[in-house]
Amino acid sequence: MAQVDPVLLRQLPRIEQIIRDETWYEGERRGCPVTPDDPIVREHVCEIVLRIGAELRAQILADMARLPPGPRMLPIENHECEHGRAA
Hints:
The chain is mainly alpha-helical. The chain is 60% helix and 9% strand. The chain has one domain (3-67). Strand 3 and strand 4 form a beta hairpin. The longest helix is centred in the middle third of the chain and has 27 residues, at 39-65. The model has no long low-confidence stretch (mean pLDDT 84).
């Protein structure tokens, strides 16, 4: 069964929030609604994730280090986000 990096699973809600925020910001800038797949929104989301990615991963790894020992890999089928199943 395919496995997903547990850090990635914990990053998804934060990345989804970045997408929502950037979609809203771009809609405000233009004065009309935009979709999350808008090229400008995607570009801004990528820039933000690249800028904060290492720090975000380090923070999540530190949080995970405080968890009790045990399996941490989850099957892909166990995660669903607002955009559908994880790929």
